[in-house]
Amino acid sequence: MFYRLIGILVLGGSFALAWVMMSLNSFSSNPMQLPDAGVSYELMPGSSLSAVARDLEQRGYLESAFYFQLMARLDGQASRIQAGEYHLASGLTPKSLLALLVSGRVVSHTLTLVEGWSFQQVLVAVAGHQALKKTLSGLSDEEIMAKLGFPDMHPEGRFLPDTYHFPKGTSDLDFLRRAHRAMEQLLAREWASREPDLPLKSPYEALIIASIVEKETGRAEERPEIAGVFIRRLRKGMRLQTDPTVIYGMGKAFNGNIRRSDLRQDTPYNTYVHGGLPPTPISMPGADALHAVLHPAEGKSLYFVAKGDGYHHFSDTLAEHNKAVRKYQLKR
């Protein structure tokens, strides 16, 4: 009788185990209860597998927290899930979910820094991005640069315009550090391969000129020629006489129009008043503008004027330039 009871218990246990394994297999391979568009799920740092399983069950995504934990432990993955933001797509199975949480393939967010932006525009874009962790609110430009490790560096032009990908929770400081490092690396490469005999003493001077070229035209094909004009002017000791530097020096006083009195205003950035380069860049130059400055187009032109269609007319002499101004600017 005793052995018969033991046999029954063993048989019953075997059936129970087989039933559990069949149920587990069905659970792990059947799609989760997710909306057609999927959902975003954030696994917080320090979260245990059991806490994640219970949370997913409470949200109605998982049929059984118990089976999810059992599946993970049998696979030896219970302690390998990684924190981050994940996209749970429609049709995802619990087995695929576990593989996703272990892989760390988190959602990638993007932020594009636009060529020609000022540092203040960069800060506005960074502060407005919901996926970035905010740590710089209320800090001055000098304090931000100090946190980046460059306390004596002016921030203008020091961050490379590009589209950056990052996971949710990346700090605004880490984002800026990455864009700053990207610009430093690009500037070093371009400076190392520059044309010989340029009237530029340092990579920083190239950055300054590139920031002006960036503001002068949105046409990539024109940048080498505009850069050539500025390089020839520097060689001849002529003033750059470029409106974007005047506008930058005016700051918030600029209302969309430059008057003759503005061209005579004595600011450090007024290249109609002062010879040589302005003290800092006036915008974030892109890779094309920087390359154009260090590989300027050959020629004799010393002047250019906007034609009104996004392009410029280039002139070798002042007389030709004045004629172009009358044609394109004064419409005479």
List keywords for this structure.
single chain, 332 residues, Dna Ligase, domain 1, 3 domains, two-stranded antiparallel sheet, two-stranded antiparallel ribbon, 47% helix, 8% strand
Give a written overview of the molecule.
With 332 residues, the protein is mainly alpha-helical. The protein has three domains: 31-73 and 80-106, Endolytic murein transglycosylase (Dna Ligase, domain 1); 108-187, no CATH class; 195-328, no CATH class. It has helices at 2-29, 49-58, 65-74, 94-103, 119-127, 141-147, 172-192, 203-216, 223-236, 243-250, 260-264, 287-294, 318-328; strands at 39-43, 84-88, 108-112, 163-167, 303-306, 312-315. The strands form three sheets. A two-stranded antiparallel ribbon has the order 1-2. Strands 3-4 form a two-stranded antiparallel sheet. The chain has a two-stranded antiparallel sheet with strand order 5-6. Strand 5 (303-306) and strand 6 (312-315) form a beta hairpin. Helix 2 packs antiparallel against helix 3, helix 8 (203-216) crosses helix 9 (223-236) and helix 9 (223-236) crosses helix 12 (287-294). The longest helix is centred in the N-terminal third of the chain and has 28 residues, at 2-29. It is elongated, with a radius of gyration of 31 Å.
Can you write the helix and strand succession as a string?
HEHHEHEHHEHHHHHHEEH
The largest sheet has its strands arranged as 1-2
The helix tally amounts to 13
Radius of gyration: 31 Å
Number of folding domains?
3
- What is the beta-strand fraction? 5-15%
Distance between the termini: 118 Å
Uncertain ranges? 7-12
Quickly give the structural class: mainly alpha
Q: What's the assembly state of these chains?
A: single chain
Question: Number of DSSP strands?
Answer: 6
Largest sheet: 2 strands, antiparallel
Proportion of helical residues? 40-55%
What is the arithmetic mean of pLDDT? 90
Gross geometry: elongated
